Amino acid sequence: MAITPFGYLILPLGLVLFLKGRKPLFWAFVLCIPFFSVYVLRLPALQTVVRPNIYFGVLLILRYTLDCCVQKRFTIYCGAECKWLLWFWFAAFCSLVMPVILQNQVLVQPINTNLDSYVLEPQRLRLSNFTQLVYPLFFGTLFLTLVSLIKDRQTLIRTYQLSAFSGLLVLGSGLAYLCLI
Question: Which of 181, 165, 147, 173 lies closest to 30, judged by CA?
């Protein structure tokens, strides 16, 4: 695990915001959404990186869960969006059956090969099939958490404004970089 220079700023900030409550974590999450090329951590063993919005998203979900446990009240808004999310999760879990059914009948490209290579191997159930479920589970849980936090029109408008501002920051930094080249 390697902490990036930006990570030395974001990691302690996230812990401080975690102690302050859900709202500061929510605003930090929204602010960091456009910063998709910034890394907080590099995890070479897993061949992945942790971006600031993912880090703040995890802390936000943990804080929401902790608050619900302390208040002994776990509320999730379950509108039409929630029902579609549950159907999606159900389909994702059902898709784990397909590698078992199609085992040795379908050839697939291994995950760690270049896209232009023609290496194929028989389809089988792997650990990567399960780890790929982590993404929809995480983002679905984050969606449910965000829905519970954006309760009024004013919060939604402030969310749009902060998101647009952070997008302009990314755009401005990109233009500044181009001018310096």
Answer: 165
Residue pLDDT, tens place only, 110-155: 777 777 777 777 777 777 777 778 888 999 889 888 888 888 899 9
**DSSP3 helix / strand / coil % (the chain, rounded to 5):** 65, 5, 30
Residue reference for tokens 């379908």: 106
Strand ranges, E, within 31-178? 41-43, 48-50, 107-108, 121-122
Q: Which residue has the tokens 């969006």?
A: 81
The residue with tokens 């998101």 is 163
Could you tell me if 28 and 56 are in contact, meaning their C-beta atoms sit under 8 angstroms apart? yes
- Residue 79 half-sphere exposure, CB side, CA atoms within 13 Å? 6
Q: What is the pTM of this model?
A: 0.79
